[in-house]
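#struct-queue
[09:14] JT: dropping the first one here, sequence first, then the structure tokens:
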Amino acid sequence: MYTKKVFKAIDMVIWTRYETFLFISIITSVVGLYFFFDLAWLKIPWTPLALIGTAVAFVIGFQNNSAYGRIWEARKIWGGIVNTSRTFGMFVQDLVENNHAVIKLSKEELNHEIKTLTYRHIAWMTALRHAMRVAKPWETVVQEKTNKEWSEIVRPPEWDISLEEDLKPYLSEEDLTYLKNKGNKQTALLYLQSHHLRKLKDNGTIWEFAFLNLENVLQELFTLQGKSERIKNFPYPRHFASLNHYFMWVFILLLPFAIVPQFAEIGRQVADAHPLGGILFIWLSVPFYVIVAWIFHTMERIGRTGENPFEGSANDVPISTIARGIEIDLRQNLGEFNEEIPKQFPVKYDTQM
């Protein structure tokens, strides 16, 4: 456990290394001006800077709370998809039968209908997770260098296969043709499910009351899909996110002109007892500034990265893993052998996608 924590801390340092180097350059330049050119007059009082820092801290806290709220809401939505999917699989297996059928189906034909409905549901989850991984202009994973590096190591499976290829194992040629020109394929698949259930109801293969129960499950899936799409398509308000980012940088750029004079003053006091130490004391402002600037920037960046819980970052809700877990459950309960069922997506660097 201790070793894992150390590795996570190292990963965080690597993730923020470019900003850390920038902070070192900023504070070293300011300290150099004070040390070599004696610019003691170039300073900012602590009071206004403390007010700015307090305001920035509040805004960053608000942003992080909002980002966490979006992540938690997304997790609850996909938790609902898990439960509703299991309910759908159970209903399909128990309610598709011959008791009220006008034309009795053979056992093989009933199993075919059950498998078609179950596989189409898996296709719906596949289409939904692919839709959630489509990049949006406001998402940060594809825009920042270290995020790109991480995405090359731990990347969502949807980035490496097209939706059309991913759907082929689950749908008939007729269904694939129907989906070809549909913009929202997950919605189209739920329509197909409803049409199929109505056909089975008309044939008596599904009792009318059972049909209503299954339609209610589809209605719940539509609701969960819409909630997931709402989070994906409505970003954290840009004026909050952008201004917060700018305010944070204003604070970071002004901070050296308050912290360096403070260390210089302490150095003059130390010089009475330790002349050399007093002269060099000003350079201790470098690590202190880097720590403060790193904390403010990293907290702001964590909030910014967590705003979009489906974009493909390490902080995402693991929708690919969740969907594959549901698929495994449904297909095992169809009686399929484990060799026929796809394996769960691997965990890389303690991260599920």
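[09:21] JT: and here's the second one, same format:
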Amino acid sequence: MAIKDDLKAIVGAGNVLDSPDVIASYSKDCSVEPPGKVTCVVRTKDAHEVQKIIKLANKRKVAVVPRSSGVHFHGNAIPRKGGIILDLAGMNSIKEIDEANLLAHLEVGVTWEQFQNAVLAKGYRSVLPLLPHPQRSVVMDWLEREQPVVQVHEYSEPLLCMQLIWGSGEEFVTGSASINNFREEGCLTDGVSPQGPGPIGFDRLIHGSQGTLGAVTWGIVHLQPLPTITKTKFITTSKVEDAIEPLYKILRRRIGYECLLLNNTSLATILADKWPAQFAELKAKLPAWTAILVIGALKRRPEERIAYQVEALDEIMKSNFPGIKVLDTLPGVAKAGEKISEMLLRPWPKNKTYWKHAYKGSCQDLVFMTTLERVQSFIPAINQVAAKYQYPAGDIGCYVQPVENGRACQLEFNFYFNPKDEAEVARIRELYAAAAAAVFKKGAWFNRPYGSAVADIIYKKYATYAATAKRFKKYADPNNIMNPGNLCF
């Protein structure tokens, strides 16, 4: 019997897709990674079907590539050695919103638009990355180590517990959600702790594994109350290094909630409504660098909280950085503070072209971890590589996201390109590989080794780590069926 017939017996004939249009759309994503080969696409409705499919794939020695949502950006869901696309987007149930513990239990196919609308309606919000695509999976973004715009330490790990099906076909649940009667009446555990009750640390193996160890089916994430009032401040500078020490001092005092730093290209891309004229106008008017600080207050004495945080901010800036401007709005943007604080509460609107794709059609992101004081050292290296490939430095977006009160930061460079121009795609692919190599030499820490070029750099450098990862892969996925060819596998 052909494997497609076996798959149809598991999920139904209507959920096994192999038409040329479907195969073409699933064989690529929004990145510059080359397309892969797909045997068929299988749509699942629950974890039991996922488990059956993975066990079947083990028996037939067929590759399986999990795909969680309608849009992917980094090539990690492109089949590099053929096989089955395991489409989990239909597993999109919000199983529970637990207001007492401020958490939500949701399947992997739940999107940012679906989830944030649901929690906002109840007076809460989720911790978010910067303006995520509305069709992206909530659970998968946290698995892929996206960083929240909230830099407070308490919310640095939004994903608490999860369920996955290892490549062997075995079910596994992490953290306190692993108790057999989790969430049943009378059970003392509530799934809020990623640690225990047994050996801890398995969740760290799953984060960033890009479907090479198994398929995650649900997760438990943090919620937060909505602020009663907010106040947005903008710290503007002409050089990135001038913004760093102010950010350190502000974050050490735990002032503000959302905190991020953008260059004028990225900020104009976010704020422009009319393309291309308004984008060019905003980019020219905006300062070279803008730090955005949103100060929020909950129900108890909110005016006092806003007042003392603004006072502390003014004291820091006037005493230490009298030449740096702190603004309540931005040039060319009416009510910028209100607009941005509202934007940061939600994913990107579904009725607008995604902000990273509005400029040229697509975007390749180079993302890594570093510390705030080292940000300035990476920009010349990126500009030098860009010049070699005739990419204008002024067209490069840059986004700095402080992490855990400034302990570290995520640094992201955006290379915008036309996905319909094959020559330009090839050029950006080479640029991306060269840029990754350049920043790696300067100490970039790639906790998200996206793309074959970056993965090759990382795993060749850390051969002992790669060997250990392969040993664990043997246990989790003995027949190497889960997304083979990705990472170091």
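[09:30] RK: nice, looked through the second one.
[09:31] RK: The chain has four domains: 3-87, 94-225, 229-343, 362-447.
[09:31] JT: good to know. Residues 108 and 217 are 5 Å apart (CA to CA).
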